[in-house]
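assembly run, all chains below
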Amino acid sequence: MSGTDSNRPVSRMATANRWYDLFSRGARDWLRHNEKVRETVREQLPDLIAGTDILSRPGDRTVQVPVRFLEHYRFRLRDNDAEEGVGQGAGKPGDVYRRARGREGGKAGEGGSGDGELQFVLELKVDDIVEWIWEELRLPDLKPKTTDALTDEDLVQEGWDRRGPRARLDRRRTVKEAIKRRAAQSDPVPFTNDDLRFRQLARRKRPAINAVVVFILDVSASMDETRRKLAKAFFFWATQGLRRQYGELETVFIAHTNEAWEFSEEEFFQVAATGGTVASTGFRLASEILAERYDPARYNQYLFYASDGDNFGDDRDSADRSLCELGDGMNFMGFVETPQNPFESSKSEMGRLFNALRVRNYPVGIYTVHNDGDIWDAIRAFFRQQQEAA
Amino acid sequence: MSNQQLSQYAPRLEGMARDYGLDYYPVDFELVPNTFMMEVAVYGLPVRMPHWSFGVRYIYQYVQHRMGHSRIFEVVFPGDPNRAYLVTDNKLAENTLVTAHVLGHADFSKNNALFGRMQSQVGFRIVEQAAERAHRIQQAIEEHGQRHVEAVLDAALALEQNIDVDRDLMRSDYPVYAAAHDRETPTRGFRGRYAHLPGEDRQAGGEHGLRRSPVPPQPEYDLLWFIARYGPELEDWERDVFLAVREESFYFYPLFACQIMNEGWASYWHARLLREADFLPQQLYLDAIKAHSDVVRPYAGSESVSLSINPYHVGFCIWEKIIEDRGLDAAFRIRTEEDDYGFIRNYLDEDLARQLQLFAYTHRRPRAGEDRYVVEDRDIHQLRELILAPKFNYGAPRVYVQHLAVDGSLTLRHEAGIDGRGLDLPRARKVLEYIQRVWRRPVRLHTAGGSGEEEVLEVSD
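ok done. output:
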């Protein structure tokens, strides 16, 4: 300004903020990015959550999915075995350096792969996920057992009575009665005993909306970590699907080798044991628990059994018998097989057993699961079958 | 001391700058909050089209900033007037330094030939123009929906660097007919006699000496322009989006291609102007010089090594040496004529490279946790080329349009020979998918595979 010709345009210095604090385009586009991530997550959901790690905390009603930032792709050369570059400092030919973690003054490499990459965690509600999956896989809703077979007793309010316990006094109704009476009488008293009205309850039957799912897991040595995870993932999503349908879903977790034990959900998947495989122990324990706690007239009953298919030959008849016994009261029995040999699915000992049950018209399904990707097929097959059966 | 003082220092610094012969369009300085600055750094422009990819960069920048790894001092948009943004929260000393720095940039952008050529095409009010384009795209979003516009921007921004800076911003279409002197059918001389055998029908086109020229007639490197101009099924507003991205890309090119020179030049002038500004309080001068040496130094300091070079420091040292050896007039001439290629090749000599402790290294792809950077023995020529290597072709692989077929399918080809290797195939496929969504006909890309064999990617509906 000073010291320049008066006709030359001058520079200006504005030191006062104007409205720049209001800018938030970065945040806007960041939100849009997150929205896209959610969409992507939703599209790839089956893949993403079949990675069974997200199920690590079974009690939670949300899952945290680590998500990488979306990349806006550009043409890039393929990675070379050796990249050359220029650095600055006291480097002599032959010196070898390693990158210090997290502190590199330069701009982040264009790829942004390797150190310093940011990840963020997306929290998803399990209910939302289930909702999406149902849409995505177009899974049917389940039907409870037919009403005449399965009933719950319910007390419903039906009409009024002049007598009853105080707790059921309907004041509004009582006052109305009093007003009517007073209108008709020439010299009315405010209330008489005749004005009192009590709510009446009646017993009515309604279809049961309770359900119990029994999970039986073979925990003998041949069921390794991977197999158990697959079984767990199947169990988890089957439960979520059933939970959509039934008001109250109770779960029973049983693990067996040559004996059987009941576990809590948390402990269930941690169990490891050695010993032979005698499946009937598990089925018998299931029968006992069901008979004791879950009246078949009041509960829809589901059973899932996961194993690699092996069972002691001696146990065949016993297992068959206990399964038949169970099958009579069941809505459905599913066998989740994580076979040792991919080509032998359903030809295993347990596979044959369940197949035989199916032939005899028991409500049975068999699902072979080799890897994460199969879980969705299995889940889909399960719910399809349920719909057809209904 | 508040930044209000700046309004007094700035004109005096400008007076000194003009006395030295710096020549620039006036600068509109503005002090803005840090948040705004971060956005400007991410978007490249104060107001720019919305796109989710900016959001990702924003978060990176934000995290860097919060961890204290990144500080932004100034952003200046060349034009007439220049627009410069300084940060309100920075100290007066820093902002005084930055004011002088900006004057250096302003001089550079007015006088450098590459800047001049681009600016005369792009215009001198980039901030307003970009805002106008952003506004148009916002309208398109309202009219055609976010997803649709986003799909177009996905493609256009992915090809941001795939323009041809040697051609003009405003280009006319290819001639429909090939030039009359057709090399393939010579009419004279020995070969002319046999070009048409007796009794043979002359080709229909040949009658008039006209033949439809293929599209494109020669390799076309300006993918954004080609798609905007020749995309068979693009709607007008979609072409408009491509051209908007292209225009901004032309604007960004000189900043990219002169970064070392430009930052070095501005750093040289902020150092010199402040050193000689006797009106500044002593303490302020000391603080400013401290800020200078925090920025204009090797990234790793003197103790350790850094695996990248600081363009401020390298540029600054080269300019200091030029002015010391050849004088100011030569420096003014060099800032007019060169870009980073000429600047590094002509003026980064062996002595300077040694003084700057530049070294070349090889980074082998990590195997089994080994992540090693081995310092190599390289001569000055190789060192210069290594510095410049990331700058070739706007930093992007050389991909050109080879052919637009009659059915509207598009064939792209990557010059793997020139780039030394083929494209990263999964990414290339994603980019093709972006393109195909707006091109709406099959899109093919030829590149080289891992062992140099030809790879063809194709995306269709």
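The radius of gyration of chain B is 26 Å.

Chain B has a mean pLDDT of 90.

not gonna interpret more than that til we talk
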